[in-house]
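Hey L., structure's done. Input below.
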Amino acid sequence: MRKSYFIVGAFGLSMLLNACEKKVEIQLPYEGDKIVVNSLIQPDSVVYIRVTRSVPSKVFDDAGYKDIPDAAVSLTANGVSLPLQLQTIKGLSYYVSGEKAVLGQQYRVAVTAPGLKPVTGTDTLVAAPLANAATAQRNSNRVQFTLKDRAASADYYRIRIYRTDAGSGQVTFLLFRLDPAFNNNLVDFFSKGNYNSLIMSDERFNGKPVNFVLQTADPLTGDGDITVEVSALTRSSYLYFNTLAAQKESGNALVGNPARVFTNITDGYGIVGGINTKRMTFKIE
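Output:
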């Protein structure tokens, strides 16, 4: 399988769907048709579940990832069944819950379809990240914010930056890296390249406040809003995003073996993962 099997289907987090995806043509042995389930579950949002059928890695056309029209999809929270409604959103089919997800509950998605192995995926939800004080200056390429990590547990994060055009409202995700002049305790994440997301655990700063200084690829100019998006991830969501990033990197490399993307879907592919996103939006000063 290749990266395209695991594109996130959580429409409720609209910023996830608007991010750019770079195609990486990676040839991996095909293990036969399987059910693919994608759902990122955010507290205080309804649950969106995307169900498709896998295809061989030699199929490079995204139109090849077809819905499974006769699939039976169920969602439970702490063992209690939640009703789902099939909706078409931007031309794609989603199974959508009538209730919003709640912290402290475990969510389980189960899918059956004729001729395919039944699959399940389970995860919990995570508290919102303690991020604040996001700022940037006009004509500079530095964006700063503070993150207070919780000491009682292992925590995982994803950081992204995007601009919202003042006139059209169009969202553009910005390329960035950690500014090497700062963040000395995060040296493992320094890179010569720029990325549209930074995925990390709290191993280097567990229980401590960290002032992040991000360096955008281009200076911040013009009108509109800048948003720093900090997402707290469960371990499953972290492993999914981290291995997805690794596969993109292995796809760009001239040598080396392609990385497999993490999945917590038993007998299938994809992800059912908890995520809790805080967005800090501000005008460029």
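The longest strand covers residues 269-283. The two ends are 45 Å apart (CA to CA).

-- N.
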